[in-house]
Write a structure and sequence with these properties.
Number of domains: 1
Structural class: mainly beta
GO molecular function, one term: RNA binding
Pfam families: LSM
Shape: elongated
CATH topology: SH3 type barrels
Protein name: Putative snRNP Sm-like protein
Mean pLDDT: 89
CATH class: Mainly Beta
CATH architecture: Roll
Order of helices and strands: HEEEEE
Largest sheet: 5 strands, antiparallel
Keywords: Ribonucleoprotein
Strand order of the largest sheet: 4-3-2-1-5
Strand content: over 45%
Number of helices: 1
GO cellular component, one term: ribonucleoprotein complex
Radius of gyration: 14 Å
Helix content: under 10%
Length: 84
């Protein structure tokens, strides 16, 4: 049986590597948040600082810090300039 590759990215590893980097978070309700990932937990609750909010593609405001509840998250992506 072939040996599994050890460089497979696991979800929590990707989150850990994204702390203090820009992320884009898409959530239910056609909302998205972008900013610096400050922290997370095992439920994917996210703390994002310097966050911008977009609803239906329209910029709705900026916040110093927000908490995104993990069960609303559709995807999390590092921003283009912060690839790891």
């Amino acid at each position: 049986m072939p040996k599994q590759q050890s460089n497979i990215a696991r979800p929590m590893d990707v989150l850990r590597g994204s702390v203090d980097h820009n992320v884009l978070v898409d959530v239910k309700g056609n909302r998205a948040y972008s900013g610096i990932l400050e922290g997370y937990d095992i439920y994917m609750n996210l703390v994002i600082k310097n966050a911008g909010e977009t609803i239906h593609g329209e910029n709705k405001g900026n916040y110093d810090r927000i908490l995104v509840r993990g069960d609303n998250v559709i995807f999390i992506s590092p921003s283009r300039g912060d690839s790891q």
